[in-house]
Design a protein that fits this description.
By secondary structure, the protein is mainly β. Helix content is about 0%, strand content about 60%. The strands form 2 sheets. The chain has a 12-stranded antiparallel barrel. The N terminus is likely disordered.
Length: about 230
Amino acid sequence: MRRILFVLLVLAPIDRTFAQISAQASIASDYVYRGVSLTQGRPVAALEVGYDSPSGWFAGALATATHLYGQKNYEPEYVLDLGYAHTLTPGLTWEVGATRSIFASYAFWNYSEAFVGLLGERWNARIYYASDYFGRGRQSWYGEFNYAQPLDEHWRFLAHAGMVQATKSASNPHSQVLDASIGLAARFGATSFAIKRSALNHDNYLYSSVSTAEPGTWVVSLAYSY
């Protein structure tokens, strides 16, 4: 699924010979999304399911929670994905699709994004567009590049760089914000572990959260795949 919260990035050639259904349960020390904590530094759990068809169509669903500014408790968030991927060469695939983020208790934050991307054996790059990002009435573009370098049979090095560009607003002095992260991930059978450090260069007022640009935020996560 496009929006895996804990960046347990396992980049491998896509094989769509057979339809495949997958599921993953995970827990992380923080919900950091595009460099911004959506739980104000609190831990969060998530459940994700995905489907890949032999013809290239894919779909996914994610259930998790947020603890945004003004919320007294954790509130549910659901993310739905639908798209199509086509293999160009054994090591290169393009994709196109759309995603819908649903905040069950705060529907005015709901928003949709369209995306296009290229996926290699160890990297992927995507561009997203939203006409009403986080229900703020502002258009936004987000570009990202992710890379995973195997270190041995189990461990790999992870790197991410992203940039959001939104239409300007008098209340938001930073319409362009950069985020990045580096980390390590390991997989032992069906269990995955990751630790990363993420940062952004400016406060990002596009989100309904208290986001202070700091040197970095550590996130530790654990996941089990079915």
